[in-house]
Amino acid sequence: MNQTNKPWEIEGLTEQEYNMIVDLLGREPNYTELGMFGVMWSEHCSYKNSKAVLRNFPTEGEVVLQGPGENAGIIDIGDNQALSFKIESHNHPSAIEPYQGAATGVGGIIRDIFTMGARPIALLDSLRFGFLDDEHVKYLFEEVVAGIAGYGNSIGVPTVGGETYFSNSYQGNPLVNAMCVGVMDHEDISTATASGIGNPVMVVGAATGRDGIQGASFASDELTDESEEDRPAVQVGDPFMEKLLLEASLELIKTGCLVGIQDMGAAGLISSASEMASRGETGIELDIDLVPKREEGMNSYEVLLSESQERMLVIPEAGKEDLVEQIFSKWDLNAAVIGEVTDDGMIRVLNKGKKVAEVPARILADDAPEYKRESKEPDYYNELKSFDIDSLFSIEENRLTRKDDIDYNNILESIITSENIASKSYIYEQYDHMVQINTVVLPGSDAAVLRIKGKDKGLALTTDCNSRYCYLDPERGGEIAVAEAARNITCSGGRPLAITDGLNFGNPMKPEIFWQFEKSIKGISKACQALNTPVTGGNVSFYNENPEGAVYPTPIVGMVGLLDKLEYATDQFFKNIGDLIILLGKTESELGGSQYLESIHGHVKGRIPELDLEKEKKIQETCLELIKAGFVKSAHDCSDGGLAVTLFESSIGNLKGADIKIESNLKAEELLFSETQSRIVISLAREDKEMVEELIGDSIEYQVIGEVKGERLKINNLIDIYIEELKTKWEEAIPLKLIK
Amino acid sequence: MRFGIVTFPGSNCDQDLRYVVEEVFEIKTDMIWHKEDLENNYNAILLPGGFSYGDYLRSGAIARFSPVMDSVIDFANQGGLVLGICNGFQILMEAGLLPGAMKVNNNLKFVCKHVKLQIKNNQTPFTEKLERDQILNIPVAHQEGNFYIDDRGLDKLKVNDQIVLKYLNDSENPNGSIENIAGICNKKRNVFGLMPHPERASEDILSSSDGKKIFESLISFLKEGVN
Amino acid sequence: MEWLVKINIQLKESILDPQGQAVQAGLNALGYNNVSDLNVGKYMELKITDLTDKEQVKEQVDEMCRRLLANPVIEDYRFNIEEMA
Amino acid sequence: MEWLVKINIQLKESILDPQGQAVQAGLNALGYNNVSDLNVGKYMELKITDLTDKEQVKEQVDEMCRRLLANPVIEDYRFNIEEMA
Lengths: 740, 227, 85, 85
Ligand SMILES: Nc1ncnc2c1ncn2[C@@H]1O[C@H](COP(=O)(O)OP(=O)(O)O)[C@@H](O)[C@H]1O
Ligand SMILES: [Mg+2]
What we know:
Chain B has helices spanning 14-24, 68-77, 87-94, 151-159, 212-226, and strands at 2-7, 28-33, 44-47, 81-85, 101-103, 111-119, 135-142, 146-148, 163-167, 181-185, 191-194. By secondary structure, chain B is an alpha/beta fold. In chain B, strands 2-1-3-4-11-10-9-6-7 form a nine-stranded mixed beta sheet, with helices on both faces. Chain B has a two-stranded antiparallel ribbon with strand order 5-8. Chain C has a single domain (2-84), classed as Mth169, Chain: A, CATH 3.30.1280. Chain C contains two helices and three strands; from the N terminus they run E-H-E-H-E. The longest helix of chain C has 16 residues, at 54-69. The mean pLDDT of chain C is 94. Chains B and C meet through loops of B and helix 1 of C.
């Protein structure tokens, strides 16, 4: 425990920040007020260390109805419908109590979506752990997955996709990011604004307890060995309560009686109240006595800062209090008036008739300082980049061994049974991914595809980030994350529309970390610009460090795309024997940062693949054209693990093998495992070949590389495997590692 | 024809059922809130999947006491057709309309995937459009679907031909249920409960449409009954 | 008068307990090889007010167990009633 | 010697117990309005062999609780050891 007589330190503020507060207020804040500043000016709520950099994101576009600034972004999808989506991290809570940490992360992001007036229709989760050889990592992994399942399944929102990667850098500091997507009609779009002087302010849902007090400041600190000791009371999620809250809130929004609605997430009541007031340029007066409490003897500080889950703050028009209560009581939920909207811009808090805090809402919500942290290229950057991969296999040796000695089948097997490439069915089979009966392309393919009931269109959803790339080259890694997400959407038959981002980094006070942060954002921005997929919101999670150091920079891209017709829905699996297989794009000698290097040689090194955004765009456009024309039977983005892994993954779905012959001057390793970007493997009926070639024209490079055939995957004279056997190994790789 | 679908707090497949019954089979439905009684003369009552009362305590245990259940029990006792899917099945057992109980899946985990099933009794209102031993591919999604019944109860199920649906074999059995049982009916054949979700397999755009036959059976039985 | 009630609910002995098996396997894997016969059940604590007679409390708790708290098809229960200060 | 160990595991006091809330509401709805403060926890029974000293058993059980059976972040445990006939 910190021993200090500087009250701001307990709240996680600096002396300078404390002096700013005194200046802004014109007096010293009292204990409760200082607590309010502590959470509102924490990194988690104020984005003080990231705001300036985040401004570089392209946030506008014809589809954007709501960019960053609200609980979630909103885009137009035609037919008077809109999509709300956002990603959120729950890394530190999940490190301490993995089941509840992950569960409440899911609960939080779902609330963000229905707060906007949208019905949540899908979840995705992006997870990072240390390798599964460690007992504690196994525990974290199992519990995080169970927590996501426990919450998402119960509330009835399907978890349709996500990604899971393993690396030592996440040992002890797992990343748990969840994304939620909701649909709504335009007229139901709601905002988190407090307006209308005299309108009642109501809290609805769960009673307030002492859960997770100061969770926001906790999230803004590094994990240490003591974290388990001085953690705030852990929040426990109640998906049942949230299901009721979701239904009641959407019913309430439909009545049109609401002026504003906001979920209570990090920093609880004080955060929701001050943000709503600040947006509306109004004030809010609250009475602590009126807040329904779960525990006795809670003081103002605790009530204001509690992070009890499954609560919302709603502001109906005056006179509609009864309607709100009526709807909530139908669902057996609390609804209590706790205050009202005022015209003086103040957050004023009363307790037992006494004023315990009075601070301008704007200062709390918007006037946190903004820092531009020092940034410095880390030493490892040039060193790792210049690693000479050819030194791993001299040309001479290679030529000799190429035919006989090196068993590429074994190499492929090692790669596909590595945690990163292995089947993730162990995870997604624990998630209800079909509830709501919209899931047309199930998890296991590039992007999930959902139908939109009553319309002939669909949604494609994905999250992506190769953090090995981002570590070796954060700028290009950021670009590739966006490009790959878009490629996944395209392969599934969708047009990429927009992204949300989950930016997970180490301590921003370290110049090398801040450099990673800046560069990643630069890369993401550039790719979003080029691919016309604006950023509609996201989340920043800093301080992801453990005693060994920072996590790999992990800027997760969550992308949504639209299928103009549902019939465009395409998966990655070969369909019919005799179909031709075409590689769109061309393989180069690019093994830097690859899965091959990691799995086979134990290196995370080298120059990561090039990315030419113009070329990327053309490949994607061509692929989508072909899909729309009805020629494409399967399409699969070629990425982690390279062409061999891509072909394997296309074979396993329907147990259809392939016979591949590629002319190439590349080394065998490069041909099979190089991770060159802007490549897609498609299959099509033989008789469509000419029309397909005509359609492609000379817009992009492509090559017919073989045909769907038999039950084996054969690539030149290098690979020859029996699909079913390897599929079993691939499926069992993760469960086997978990056996104690 | 009109079906009633009961919504319990925490039900989450109620709207899926409504969609399939109304949009795919064009049968009128009423959504019945669990605090109400059955008011109309329904041809069938459907209890949907989900997590009624959060599945707290035991799945279906608290929902079984929802006010609506008294009239559902009356309806069933008078021979009305009642279909319980997943959580609906669990509620029917808790309510005593079907025998047995659910334990947690053998691997203790929630499981969501398509499984192969086999029809064991096609002489019920819910399966008459199917062949005996016909194989169906329908998804399951549950954590407590490990059907248990004691030996005497099992014998009775067999003697009365109440085992309607089984998982095809041990490796298709996702939960460890006794004798691979996936769905059973009562002695009078008017109450049917099953763990798999036929409503998730009733449209061609979804991965399987094998679930359709269950609804078709029910509807055709009702139509012929009327004639 | 206030009564503190403690209730234990367990799967019947003849019924295989998947959770108990899993926990026991977990303990054995951690090296606790001398552990056996592990069962997992539920434990509840609750307060009852408004009754003065312990027999009445007992009757009520028994009824609550039979009706809701335990499932007689697979579970046994037992309970214990203490008078609170 | 054989030891019978009974372990109770419950959520710490300030931690939300959604299950307890729901069960209590269920009982209240059934008319048992005099029931309050309901908590749901876990109960385990297990056998330990190969140890002769009760203190050793105690130590082992405590360690097992900390390492696997309970989650010390949100749960408290207590246990009871009996020598078996
Ligand atoms: N990485 C980011 N990129 C773009 N916008 C961001 C990013 N991080 C946060 N934002 C935006 O900042 C606002 C505040 O975010 P946040 O604090 O995560 O919301 P919440 O209060 O729901 O947790 C949101 O509108 C969010 O979309
Ligand atoms: Mg929010």
